[in-house]
Amino acid sequence: MINLNQAATSLPKPECVIQATTDAMRHFSSGGRGVEESALMAQRMVFLLRQKLARFFDFHDDISRVIFTGNATQALNTVFFGLFNAGDHVITTDLEHNSVLRPLEALRQMGILSVSYVPADAKGRILYSDFERLIGPHTRAIVVTHQSNLTGNIVDLHRVSRIAHKHGLILIVDASQSAGALPISMQEMGIDILCFTGHKSLMGPQGTGGFLVRQGIELRPLMYGGTGIRSYDLLQPDVYPEHLEAGTLNMHGLAGLSSAIDYLGSSGVERIHDHEMALTAGFWRRVRQLPGVTLYGDFSDFEESEGIWVTDPGPRTGDRMHHGPIVTLNLAGISSSELADALSREYGIAVRAGAHCAPRMHRALGTEESGSVRFSFGWYNTPGEMDRAAWALRRISQDLR
Amino acid sequence: MEQREENGGRRLRDVITFAGTTDALRAEQLAAERGFSGRLIPLPAQIDADCGLAFLCAEGEREQMLAALKGQVEPQGVWQVLLRC
């Protein structure tokens, strides 16, 4: 199988990640719940992983503020339910995934929160001035994805953080799609809370994720339970990370994630990004003029270079956006589900079809009814695989004529 | 020898406690980097009938250990405890 569904989860995982995960299953006891060597080994691994992630995301605060959860959704829920108070107003965007939209909507329906959405146009672009326009007296935070999971459009976090901090707002970033695929510096980008998942471009196991939260931002726990410390406290201890980490962590998965971070460090995120983007640009070049094809997203990076990936396309101004390793499209005469099925069954190519957990984005693109087919590229994909996928798409397109 | 037997084989040892697990592990890391031979132990019940980790200083290394922690980790307490080790 050619896996071009990397935005759902990276597959395959690096061999060292598989090895570290299985080694942990052989040797780790329950970290935080014992002091035998096997428990201490698990605890040390988690401690070192907090240090590694702080370095990886250029996070300068205390590593006790690197919090682990089961995935990005759990991280976002922990942040939203722990941060917002009655009467708060939040600004988010049409680009967001349901992992952002649904918890915010739940808080809104509880009467706690009001939410405004920065609209996207038919290319999935936003106007940065809209953030400023939507700020009101009760606005507490801006919640924004770094990269749309549907179009691949990349949000310029520098610009959003300048607006957020000018108005004293907290900037919360959903880096589910970008962490590991794009360099992220919390310091330089002015990110206050960064939520990530371990199993996408970070190349770790599913069931890992978390967030990094700057000192001075206090969160109420979402979950209550065992911490391995201060057993007689009636509620969660106020010390981080235990304050926000109730229950046994996924030590086996985190061991894999720790190895994945080492792997990313030795491979280099910039190099990975260039590899994935070269494939994406090449695919775009091959399919953009297929009869009946509709592409979704802002491809101005590729249009300027005629589909040859330029390592540094330069800063984006106005409403133009950089693009990540995703090409989403539809072909006239075939539904997105049929196309995905044909690619899988007839050509052995895995993609994602239908709606992509981003309902507002689909509405902006006009794909609410049709859905769309997403091709997403990863570190282990090859030019040959990209070429074959473009060829398969051309064949299907020809069969439809 | 006589004193050891009186205390059931226990000796007075220096133990440092912390607010949470991450600080205890950071203390262990700082100690290892400096070649100290202290180690993590279960929080002694004589200090607190609770759970968690504490750092047992190697004999004669308490002051060096506290100096290493300075500016890096804030100890919650420094104790002298009769321990069987």
Detail the topology: elements first, then pairings.
The complex is a heterodimer of chains A (401) and B (85).
Chain A: E1 2-3, H1 15-27, H2 37-56, E2 66-69, H3 72-83, E3 88-93, H4 98-109, E4 113-118, H5 129-134, E5 139-145, E6 153-154, H6 157-166, E7 170-174, H7 186-189, E8 193-197, E9 209-213, H8 251-267, H9 269-287, E10 293-296, H10 300-305, E11 322-323, E12 326-331, H11 336-347, E13 349-350, H12 359-365, E14 373-376, H13 383-400
Parallel strand pairs in A: 1-13, 3-4, 3-5, 5-7, 7-8
Antiparallel strand pairs in A: 2-9, 6-11, 8-9, 10-12, 12-14
Chain B: H1 2-6, E1 11-17, H2 21-33, E2 39-42, E3 53-56, H3 62-69, E4 77-83
Antiparallel strand pairs in B: 1-3, 1-4, 2-3
Structure description:
The complex is a heterodimer of chains A (401) and B (85). Chain A has helices spanning 15-27, 37-56, 72-83, 98-109, 129-134, 157-166, 186-189, 251-267, 269-287, 300-305, 336-347, 359-365, 383-400; strands spanning 2-3, 66-69, 88-93, 113-118, 139-145, 153-154, 170-174, 193-197, 209-213, 293-296, 322-323, 326-331, 349-350, 373-376. Chain A has 401 residues and is α/β, with parallel strands linked by helices. A seven-stranded mixed beta sheet of chain A has the order 2-9-8-7-5-3-4, sandwiched between helices. Chain A has a three-stranded antiparallel beta sheet with strand order 10-12-14. In chain A, α1 (15-27) packs antiparallel against α8, α3 packs parallel to α4 (98-109) and α11 (336-347) packs across α13 (383-400). Chain A is globular, with a radius of gyration of 21 Å. The mean pLDDT of chain A is 95. Chain B is of the alpha+beta class. The interface between A and B is medium-sized, with 20 and 16 residues.
